[in-house]
Every structure is written in C-alpha cells, then in structure tokens.
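user: can you give me the structure for this one chain? tokens are fine.
assistant: on it. calling the predictor now.
[tool input]
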Amino acid sequence: MKPGEIRPFTLEGKTALVTGAGRGIGRAVARKLAMQALYRWQLNAGPWQDVLNEFAAEEDMRKADRGYFNQLVTDICGASDALDTALAGFMDRKPTELDPVERAVLWVGAHELRSAPDVPYRVVINEAVGLAKRFGATDSHKFVNAVLDAAAKELRPNEH
C-alpha cells in the first residue's frame, strides 16, 4: 500500500479501512525488530551499528517503520546504561542479571515512556508485554508489566 491509499481489510467477518503505511503495525514490527536487534547486541559484543545494518536486511523490515526502528536502536544503544539505571529503581534485581530478552523489551518500553510522548503509556506497556509473551520466558510478561507500570507512574504521572 502506498501512503494515503485506503483499502478495506476483513478479519473474522469484520471489515475496516486500512490507510497508508499502517503506522501502528509498522511501529509494532519496528519494536519487535528493535528488541531482536538489542538482544543480539547484548549477546554478541560489537558495534551497535553492525546490528543496525544487519537488521536492515530482515524480511520483516518491509512491514516495519524503518525510521522508528533506526531511532529505537540508535537511541537505546546510546543510552543503555542510563536506561538500566532508570529501570533499576523499579526492579528487585540488577538489569544486568535479567534475561537478555526481558532486558531488551524493558529497554524499548522504558525508552518509549521517556522519549515518545506521542505513544500512550498503555500502548507502550501492551506492546512490551506482547513481546515478552512471544519471545520471553514463561512468566516474563508479568515482570515486564509490573516494571513498566511502575515506571509509567513516575515518568507519565499526568497520563497514568
């Protein structure tokens, strides 16, 4: 679909109009790819720019908001220590002790809570919980939900 194009979309017997690049879907895919890139960055020491370039060729990148993906990875890699420090206040363990999937999901969520006021905090938490359910350990989504909910109360007090 081209930006500005409108097309009907049917799922389970319900029809809706889908427009343009699908910002919500594109951002959701960008978050998923960013989480995977951050996971890889944690496991394989090396410049984060290499991971950014590697993921640019991912098949799902066609569906992603590429600019949002680039922004997430660039900003988070540049501020991972600051994000860890911010997250530490909402957890009962050090961020470095977390499973790399949980840590990557929390980085994305914390970054969006801090730096993306256009994304409602409920969307941030919902997206992060979904990623934790899909890629994390059995109950990691509960931990992610609790940490980001506590962070949202502090970072977005007027919205929470």
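assistant: here you go. Residues 1 and 132 are 29 Å apart (CA to CA). Confidence is low (pLDDT under 50) at residues 1-7, 15-22.
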